[in-house]
Protein 1
Amino acid sequence: MKFEGRTLLVTGGASGIGRGLAEALHARGAKVIVAGRRADLLSAVTAANPGMASMVVDVTRADAIADFAARLIAAHPVLDGVINNAGIMRKEDVATPAHLDDAEATVVTNLLGPIRLTAHLLPHLLTRPRATVINVTSGLAFVPLAATPTYSATKAALHSYTQSLRHRLAGTSVEVVELAPPYVQTMLLGEFQATDPNAMPLAAFVAEVMAILAQEPTPAEVIVERCRALRHAAENGAYATVFAGLNAEHF
Ligand SMILES: NC(=O)c1ccc[n+]([C@@H]2O[C@H](COP(=O)([O-])OP(=O)(O)OC[C@H]3O[C@@H](n4cnc5c(N)ncnc54)[C@H](OP(=O)(O)O)[C@@H]3O)[C@@H](O)[C@H]2O)c1
């Protein structure tokens, strides 16, 4: 896809992968709007990137998404894309009901969030000559991490939803892309992850993603080298081995 001249919303754009992608897109000439719950973090990102815009949104608030989408489109009438990147990841003890609050929050944020926001943006995106919906899933969509069962399940569900969305929008101006990161150095699971040597450095991840996204036509799936073993485990006949290796230790 071409980046220059595009106007793209990045949810969860104030930190981690979202911020990395937002800044890379901004540097390549896109107008980027970062969105999330923490206004102070959003302001820090726009201050560091003159020309970038921000809006506060909580993607779990079904009642607020329609209003958010309307305000976003009113402020940026040439909006032609969204990166549904906002997400949470929680460890869960499945043996007790104590994890149910985390399970429900994870479903509402990671699965219903992108479904709702995309639904409210699509009527507008379909009027644009070329538009893009990018859903951020995970390598864990393809082989689950048992310590984070609901997280892994939401990403598998978003993978499935993305396939259906792509099929239903085929022949329209809206392309649908899945971005499945491997384990990357961010604060998703906590501070330790940001410096975990087993996780992919964020800058290297963003650079590889941008190189793949720059291809024409835009690939349906953006899978960096480090994620290929997970993405293709089943078709490679390696699912049981990869599952066992991934789940040999608990975080
Ligand atoms: N890092 C990895 O290893 C990895 C691997 C595979 C997939 N991913 C996916 O990559 C995406 C980004 O994660 P990350 O690693 O960059 O972690 P992160 O830094 O924690 O980013 C998550 C972002 O989502 C936002 N967010 C969370 N709940 C939200 C809500 N209810 N409404 C609006 N925004 C919300 C957060 O901002 P606020 O808290 O300010 O709202 C934050 O900016 C997630 O979808 C994650 O599942 C990450």
Protein 2
Amino acid sequence: MTEDLSNMHLTKAEFQEYGYQLVDWLAEYFDNVGQYQVLPSVEPGDIRKMLPVSAPEKAESMDDIIADLDRVVMPGVAHWQHPGWYAFFPSGASPVSALGEFVAAGLATQGMMWSTAPSATEIENTVLDWLVDLLGLPSSWRIDEGPGGGVIQMSASDSTHLSLAVARYQFELSGVDTNSLVAYGSSHAHSSIEKGARIAGFKHIRSVPVTSTYGIDADAFKQLVQEDIESGLVPAWICSAVGTTNTTAMDPIRAIATIAKENGMWHHADAAYAGSAMICPEFRELQDGVELVDSYTFNPHKWLLTNFDCSIFWVADRSKLIETLSISPPYLRNKTEDNPSAVDYRDWHVPLGRRFRALKLWFVLRSYGAENLRTFIRSHVEWAKELENKVLGDSRLELTAPRTLALVCFRHLDGNDATKKLVDAINSSGSAYVTPSVTDNVSYIRVSIGSTWTEQRHVAELWNLIDTNAGPR
Ligand SMILES: Cc1ncc(COP(=O)(O)O)c(C=O)c1O
């Protein structure tokens, strides 16, 4: 059977025609995203009902496919890029990042080894080294200096899991019974810490108490470590949060590092959200002692204008990472495998294949420049301060945690029901979306300012919404 396959694909002219149409479609979206209701009005199953039960046997036209973006997709989109998105943490994208992603998708290079993707590998090496300097991290984490180095992962959860897996393997290599290893994280640590420890095979996971400002209580950590040693266990891994999800609390890295080092533990820092702020030198004191950790993760896909997925994982000593992950069947051997200038990223994370994620990050860092990125972060922190002051000056409300960056946590003084009612009023307005949360049975509202298109006036509008719905003064 001799088939001509060339007619299957979009022709060059069709690719251009529909490509331009889609760029126009996205440009309109960026321009109008603030006009949408932040959350869609759909019920589970509504989108599926619009889709056929089985895949098309015959080719469909691109006109029909593109029309379905408006007909099928848009009714079910939660608009994470809406200027009124204050929920969770931001997942900020940018037009230039979308363009980088588009080109990476078209090149579809597989960066498993230097030899399969020299540009992708060396651009990733370079932008991560740039970020080491931009964030004020130890220069020994630069790949071109070492012994550390960085790699782009899908998510902070992956980075944390990997850090746990490497730590566990290092203990195994040194002959420790891995059933006795203990992982520690703050009682306010992100769920990815417990999840990562569980799937990395840790049998003992400790939740460390926090102080009144929700950072780890270093004395309580020391005591837990002591108790575990006395009962025959081996303290192995601790996570310091540089900005917890609940309140952006900072764990005391330096004090934790002393205890971790004394006990031969692996120390990981989770700066998933707050890491982006370190591009501004004035915030770096929040992660004082960072040079002492063994690994560190932060997400440009949260607050650095780079679309999901793009999470960075740095290790202080890359030889341990590579020792844990390197397996070399004959089909992966290659001519440059012993050349230190040719990084084989397959040995730096779990998957073999990998996308050219560095391209969008490279586009973002160049197109904005560090100056604009700093202005972006500082503006959000300023607007958060303004909102914090409004809350402080309002007799109906109170802060429930100190504000460190651009997350403001507050509640209604009439209690949990009044707080929940206020959340419902904000979220049902369609123009803003905040996350309700609970700490020690106290309900509160998280307002996380950081979306790409949010401006000062949107935060002022949010305050009006809060003010109007908080009841009589
Ligand atoms: C402190 C912290 N760690 C980890 C994560 C998980 O991030 P990811 O979705 O990249 O796994 C989050 C998400 O908000 C977070 O706030």
